[in-house]
């Protein structure tokens, strides 16, 4: 005598073919910070919803979880059954469908995603989650780096007697950049050899070039290019060129504006009829008409008693 097999169907049915991936930006998207999976995650659901929930849970993010794609890979259920199961999973708190406006400038498009949660959540949790997803993350403004940061003194050091330096240990003051550039002119061209006194007197004029943003090589080229066959007074010649060829003071560069946050807008979508709207306008992932279907003709419309 044949014995009837009363064992329940497996929680996660094997797909009949490799499940397709959705287009880039679409498809399943798991909510963050989920707990580890448990054996009885969907045990409280009816058998059909339990099978489909286990199947969606096993899919990777980005998989196509629309009704047609799921029905093709779940041989036990057709599109109508899959649609009813997704509605039930939305009511149970496992999924929400959303439309997201993604992109920058004129390159924007709407994408449809299905947020999936292994744990069931109530409407308040989903509304807060979708509202946070709809809020663009502000781009922090660049913080200017100071030229030098003084070290913080934690405690006043005890005064120490200053050692009296020996005369031979005293170092001479380091020459400035302008002084050294003038002193090297004679090595670039002997006709502009300057004495130490000449360099000291012309130092301030050369320093003004550096204040206007030029470098030592630029200043040297401006002073040594196009020299006459002989220079009677290197000091007078360099002083005149420092004054006559002084470059203009350029305005400070305009700081680049901080990049704007990419356009991102999220609208919830009714799991049943796909109507978009604000997250708080939906209850259990359903719009009002789908939660309260119109009564059939001939039935009473008065309040229930």
Q: Helix count?
A: 10
Order of neighbouring strands in the sheet with most strands: 1-3-2-4-5
* Percent range for β-strand residues: 5-15%
Series of H and E elements: EHHHEEHHHHHHEEH
Description of the molecule:
This protein is an alpha+beta fold and 305 residues long. Among the domains are: 27-138 and 261-291, no CATH class; 176-244, no CATH class. The protein is 31% helix and 11% strand. It has 10 helices and 5 strands. It has a 5-stranded mixed β-sheet. Strand 4 and strand 5 form a beta hairpin. Helix 7 runs parallel beside helix 9. The two termini are 53 Å apart. The relative contact order is 0.12. The model is unreliable at 1-11, 145-154 and 300-305 (pLDDT under 50).
SSE order and pairing:
Blueprint: E1 27-30, H1 47-58, H2 67-73, H3 79-92, E2 95-104, E3 107-116, H4 123-134, H5 177-183, H6 185-188, H7 196-211, H8 216-224, H9 234-244, E4 263-269, E5 276-277, H10 288-291
Parallel strand pairs: 1-3
Antiparallel strand pairs: 2-3, 2-4, 4-5
Helix pairs in contact: 1-3, 2-3, 5-7, 5-8, 7-9
């Amino acid at each position: 005598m044949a014995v009837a097999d009363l064992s329940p169907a497996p929680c996660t049915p094997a797909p009949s073919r490799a499940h397709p991936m959705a287009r880039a930006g679409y498809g399943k998207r798991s909510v963050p910070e989920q707990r580890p999976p448990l054996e009885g995650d969907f045990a409280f659901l009816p058998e059909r919803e339990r099978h489909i929930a286990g199947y969606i849970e096993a899919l990777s993010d980005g998989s196509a979880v629309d009704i047609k794609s799921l029905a093709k890979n779940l041989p036990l259920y057709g599109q109508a059954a899959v649609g009813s199961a997704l509605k039930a999973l939305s009511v149970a708190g496992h999924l929400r469908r959303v439309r997201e406006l993604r992109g920058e400038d004129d390159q924007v498009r709407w994408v449809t995603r299905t947020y999936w949660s292994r744990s069931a959540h109530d409407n308040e949790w989903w509304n807060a989650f979708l509202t946070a997803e709809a809020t663009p993350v502000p781009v922090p403004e660049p913080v200017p780096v100071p030229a030098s940061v003084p070290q913080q003194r934690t405690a006043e050091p005890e005064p120490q007697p200053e050692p009296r330096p020996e005369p031979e240990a005293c170092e001479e003051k380091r020459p400035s950049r302008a002084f050294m550039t003038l002193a090297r002119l004679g090595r670039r061209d002997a006709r502009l050899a300057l004495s130490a006194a000449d360099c000291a007197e012309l130092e301030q004029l050369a320093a003004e070039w550096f204040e206007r943003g030029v470098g030592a090589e630029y200043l040297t080229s401006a002073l040594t290019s196009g020299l006459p066959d002989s220079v009677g007074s290197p000091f007078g010649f360099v002083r005149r060129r420092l004054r006559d060829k002084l470059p203009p003071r350029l305005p400070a560069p305009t700081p680049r504006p901080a990049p704007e946050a990419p356009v991102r807008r999220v609208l919830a979508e009714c799991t049943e009829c796909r109507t978009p709207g604000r997250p708080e306008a939906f209850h259990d992932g359903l719009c009002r008409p789908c939660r309260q279907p119109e009564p059939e003709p001939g039935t009473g419309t008065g309040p229930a008693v």
